[in-house]
Amino acid sequence: MISKILVAVDGSSAAGKAVEYAVGLAKQTGATVTFLSVIDMSAFTVQSVPDVVAPTHLTEPIEDYLKQAAEAHIEEAVKLCSKNNVRSKKAVRSGHPVEEIIKEADASKADLIIMGSHGKSAVRAAILGSVTYGVIHKETKVPVLIVRRG
Questions:
Q1: For residue range 115-135, what is the model confidence (pLDDT) as tens digits?
Q2: How many of the other CB atoms lie within 10 Å of CB of 112?
Q3: Which fold has domain 4-148?
């Protein structure tokens, strides 16, 4: 029985389809949905942009900006849950996305992980570091459902 669903949210159209699917499934099963967004700071070497250099005078740390964006993506998903009378939780983490998704699945005792996919080939995913590819090939006992963007 599915009672806890974890959905990885990143603001992409593929993740949006995964959210819609998860909410529909949760409505049918009575499951609680946890929305997780992971801020991958490994892609950034600069933690903040000095206001002297930035043309828009951005002085807040990049991580704060990314956290606000992640929370906004999750909030849209939570609204969809509210419209459909589905219980939801939200989490924002910093770290390596694959590792954080698996940690959250274990910590929340998720019965199912739902993720969106852009439909890259296995070769492109391995070279580009697809998060979905990483999660399905990591050692986790939690089933993973992939929702294609198209």
A1: 998 766 555 555 545 888 889
A2: 21
A3: Rossmann fold (3.40.50)
- Name the H helices within 30-150: 62-83, 97-107, 122-128, 131-137
Copy the structure tokens of residue 125. 């995913």
Taking the C-alpha atoms of residue 146 and residue 8, their distance in angstroms, rounded to an integer, is 11
Q: Which two tokens mark 85?
A: 């009378």
Side by side, the strands of the sheet bearing 4-8 are 88-94, 32-39, 4-8, 112-117, 144-148
Q: Within 10 Å of residue 95's Cβ, how many Cβ atoms?
A: 14
Instruction: Give me the residue spans of the domains in the chain.
Output: 4-148
Q: Which residue has the higher pLDDT, 55 or 100?
A: 100
pTM over 0.70: yes
